[in-house]
Task: structure prediction
Amino acid sequence: MMTKMGARMKINLQTGKLYTDAGKLLKKMVCPLDESWQGMPQEGPDDVRRCAQCHRTVTDISYKTEEEVSKILFEDPGACLHFDIEESNIKVISHEL
Result:
């Protein structure tokens, strides 16, 4: 599946910080539970699963645009997110913005 063309979010894997293409911090991706995406039961749409440990919903942002992710976080700043670093909508960086 291809993501919509446009801005690419950036993730620093060392700090877990997810940024917009322009460098605005979207979220610090922190989860101490180490739950596998594949092990989570699907809940609703294909991109939403439920964490068996904390019982929160987790949204896969691998195919979402920066605008879609911003909307998710505006509606729920504590939203749990999952992503695949191989997808074209997220660029891995090694420095802080």
About this structure: The chain has one domain: 9-93. The chain has a mean pLDDT of 89. The helical segments are 66-75. The first helix runs from residue 66 to 75.
